[in-house]
Design brief:
The chain is an all-alpha fold. It has a domain of about 35 residues. Helices cover about 25% and strands about 0% of the residues. The protein has 2 helices and no strands.
């Protein structure tokens, strides 16, 4: 899978009009966590290894 047109958004940036990006927030879905480790704390640790975690959407009832 992946992007069908990876270069579709390529353009020149003017630093006075478009300041350089330092961070880009994005959503991550983590699958395959063993049931005995499935908790908000573990999900937070995994997300923290990727970057800064802003929010965790976890439904314990749906996970069981």
């Amino acid at each position: 899978m992946g992007f069908q047109r990876p270069n579709a958004c390529a353009s020149t940036m003017d630093p006075l009009v478009n300041p350089p990006l330092t961070t880009i927030p994005f959503w991550v879905q983590i699958r395959g966590i063993p049931f005995q480790f499935l908790s908000v704390e573990v999900i937070g640790e995994i997300g923290g290894a990727i970057g800064e975690v802003h929010d965790i959407d976890y439904d314990a009832e749906a996970a069981s």
